[in-house]
Input
Amino acid sequence: MSQLSSRIEAILYLKAQPLTIAKIAEYAGCERDEAEEGLLDLMSDYAHRDSALEVVETPEGYCLQLRESFHDLVQTLIPVDLGVGALRTLAVIALKGSISQTDLVELRGSGAYQHVQELVSLGFVRKRRQSDGRSYWLQVTEKFYQYFQVDQLPQLPDLNTLKQGKQEPVQPLPSELADSES
Output
C-alpha cells in the first residue's frame, strides 16, 4: 500500500463519514486523480485483506466502515436500550433533518425534553443553541447513521403544512430502506 493510500485510510478513519474524491484530495493535499488512484489502491488492499473493515462508496462519497458480517458485534458490544418514546422522538429528529426543540416538544409533548437529554448523552443527537438563544436546533449525528445502518432518510412534509392539515404526499422510501422494512 502506498504512502498516499495510508494517508487516505487515516483521513477516512478520522473523519468517520463519507467523503467525496474532491474532499479526500483536499485533505490529503494532492490532485484529484492522485486521490482516485490512492483510493482505488486502498480499496483493493482492503478487498484482499482479511479485515473487519472495508472502504465503500455511498451516494455521499467514500467511507471506511465495518464489514456487514461484523454488524452483530455492534449490537452486542454497544447495546442501546431506548424506550418507545425516545425512539419516536429520535425518528422525528432524523426525518426532519433539523428541528427546533420547541417544535419537537409541540409534536411530541413535554416528555421530549427527557428524550432529547437521553439521545444527546448517547451521542445520537447534537444540540446547538439557536441564534436568538431561546431554543436549540436538534439533528442526528454520524453515530445515528452508523448505528442504524442508514445512509439517508426521506424528508417529511413541512411542519407548518402538517399543522394546517394540508399534508403533502410523503416521499416513498428508497428501495434499500423499503426492502429492510419487510
Q: What stands out?
A: The CA atoms of residues 113 and 124 lie 15 Å apart.
